[in-house]
Every structure is written in C-alpha cells, then in structure tokens.
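Hey,
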Amino acid sequence: MPFAERFAAFSSGAFFLAGLVFGVWKYVALARSTDARAPVYVDVAHRAALLYAFACLVVERFAALSVLAPDLEVAAVVAQIAFFGLGLSTYVVHGVLRDTDNQFEKPHRLGKRTVPPALVVAFMVALVVAELGGFAVLFFGACTAPA
C-alpha cells in the first residue's frame, strides 16, 4: 500500500481511538456535572475526532483513486490530516482549560491569555488552504484517472 494511503488509514485509526478516549472524558465530565453537561469543547473534541476518523477514510480512498505523482499525493494527504489534528488539538486545549465555549469569540481566549486576532485568521486561512486544497488535489487526481 502506498504511503499516502497507509498514512490516511492509520490516521483514521488514531482519530477513532482518540474519539473513543474523548468519549470517556466526556462521560466522566457528564457524571461529575450537576447539570449532566460536559464542557463545550470536550463534547466538540469527542465528536470531531470521530468525524475526522471517517474523513481520513475518504482521504485514503481518493488517494487510492488518484493518478497523480506519489509525492504530490503524500503532500495532499499529510496537509489535510495535519490540520485535522491541529484543529482537534485546539478543541482539546479549550476542553482542558475550560476557558471558552466559542473559540472565535473576541477576544480570542487561551486560558488566562488572549490570542492576537491576526494569528487566528492566519491559522484559519492555512487550515482552509491545506484541507480544501489537499482534497481538491486528490479529487482532481481521481477525476483524471482513466476509466
């Protein structure tokens, strides 16, 4: 199995396992809560990890269908999955810190500190380019494959 496909498949497993672990974290938070609610970003991390697991399978399948150069496919796959992980890590950090229920609310909080708005925008632009651009590359590679 080519590296791009293997990386996507194993990333799927890692995200799924993380989602299951975050489900335990969510349950413990629910059980300890007086209103049977987990912190917002604990819940978001749990659901996002499970969704990223399945997104990685879509990425893996399109990497398999793509006829582009293997190095380009690897770059597209790694870019997407890296930003899945980076996005998920922000949810986990906010879940641990319990510092916000909306990471895009200004001022952007990170614990007791604030994050400059330009940094948040730059991260989001990079995320869009990596995730959307990475998948567009694989989709193009799959669409141009001979029938």
